[in-house]
């Protein structure tokens, strides 16, 4: 039996090639400020917000889209930033928990309602809960407790502050509707 001979051509085609270093330039707005970045196409919006833009209010909970701790708004719609490739933010407006306070630093009505209704305990899930609460109200899905619970159900609170969370969202919804 003959032993295969490795030729220069075989060596060239079987040698591992170096990894490609591809970046994509993207521009978007984050909390009303323009951002221009060269992004690795694999980077999540969550990691870009936290690690590159130092907006650490958005939390990394499960990193699989199961807990809602990473909820932000993209063009006014809530998204799970851990599942959103950052390159998809190109040309959009991203709002994080840091961007919802008023111009003088006053709390957003939903943030204030969380305080008033004791809707937080450890606080880890609170930024995502607030962002979902704002979206729930803006989307018109806070008409009653059951509806609010349903539309907030993608956000987990390991401490069990759900009654306060629903009460806070409903209180703001009632004020804005009335």
In summary, what is this structure?
This protein is α+β, with helices and mostly antiparallel strands. Helices cover 34% and strands 14% of the residues. α3 (109-116) crosses α6 (162-177) and α5 crosses α6 (162-177).
Instruction: Return Rg in Å.
Output: 22 Å
Mean pLDDT over the residues:
92
How are the strands of the largest sheet arranged? 2-1-5-3-4
Distance between the ends: 89 Å
How would you describe this structure to a colleague?
- The chain has 178 residues and is of the alpha+beta class.
- The protein has six helices and five strands; from the N terminus they run H-E-E-H-E-E-E-H-H-H-H.
- The chain has helices spanning 8-14, 45-52, 109-116, 126-138, 145-152, 162-177; strands at residues 24-30, 33-39, 71-74, 77-80, 93-95.
- The chain has a five-stranded mixed sheet, with helices on one face.
- The termini are far apart.
Topology diagram in text:
Blueprint: H1 8-14, E1 24-30, E2 33-39, H2 45-52, E3 71-74, E4 77-80, E5 93-95, H3 109-116, H4 126-138, H5 145-152, H6 162-177
Helix pairs in contact: 3-6, 4-6, 5-6
What labels describe this entry?
single chain; 178 residues; alpha+beta; five-stranded mixed beta sheet; 5 strands; 34% helix; 14% strand
